[in-house]
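Hey, sorry to bother you again with one of my protein questions. I've been puzzling over a protein and I'd love to understand its fold better. Take your time with it, there's no hurry, and the full record follows here:
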Amino acid sequence: MSRPDSFRIGLVQHACGDSTQANTDRCIELIRQAAEAGARLVVTPELFTTRYFPQAEDPAAFDLAEPVPGPTTQRLGELAAQLGIYISASLFEKRAAGLYHNSSVMIGPDGAIVQRYRKMHIPDDPGFFEKFYFTPGDQEPGWAVAPAGQVRAGMLICWDQWFPEAARLSALRGAEVLLYPTAIAWSDDEPEEEQQRQREAWITVQRSHAIANGVFICAVNRVGREGALRFWGSSFVADPGGTILAQGDTDSEQALVVDCDLARIEQVRRMWPFLRDRRVDAYADLGRRYGD
C-alpha cells in the first residue's frame, strides 16, 4: 500500500518557568491543540520541562535531570496513546550518577519509546555553558532516525543545527524531516542589529540544510525572558526547496500546525540531485579536525 502524500506536523512553542510541573502541563496543553488540528507528529522545544539552566554552571541544576524512561516519558507516552500521535520530546537525561545527556525521545502512538537521540554537538559559550552539564552522545549509530508514521525523522538538537555534517548524515540514513528542538535567544548586551543578524543566520543555515539534502526542516524554539536571555521563538518548517511553509512569531506561545507534501522531496531531488553528485571518493579529510 502506498503511503499518504502528506503529513501534518505540530510545533509547540512556549515559555518555561520555574515549575517543571507547570511547564509540562503547558506543553501538554499545546500538544493537545496541535493534535486537535490534525498533527500526527508533535515536537517540543529543547529541554522544555525547565528553564534554560545552562546560563550558569551550577551543580545543583543536575537535580533537574531524570532517567529515560522516566516520569516525563511516562506521562507523554500516556498522552501519545490517548491522542494516537507521535511526540518528539527533548529532555535532560540522567544516564548514571555523574553522567548526563541532552536527549530527545520519539514516542509512538502506542505510548512506547521508538527512538532516543543524545545531542552530539555541545556548545560552551557565554550564557550557554552546556559542556558543564552534557556528555556528547555516544550511541551507535550517532545520527538517530526514527519512524514517525509515514515519515522518517532525523532527531537532532539545537547546536546540531549549525553543522552540515549532522544534517547530511541524517539524510543519508533516510531522514525525510530533520527535527531541531531548540533553545536559542538574544542576550541583553548585544545591539539590536546583531540580534537580528543572529536570528537570520539561524533561519538561513537550517533552510540551507533543507535545500542541500532535499528534506523538510522543523525547528522549534521557546519564547520568553529567562535571566539575561530573551528567547526569540520563530519556530518554523521549511520544505526541501528551502521555502518556509509556516513560522511562529518571536513572542507568542502557540501550537503551529503545518502540512508537508512528501512528494516535494522527490520533485526537488530530481531537479537538484545533490545526493547523486556527491564525490564520496574525495571527502576523506572530513574525518580530520583541520586540513593542516
User: Anything to note?
Assistant: The chain has one domain: 6-278. The mean pLDDT is 96.
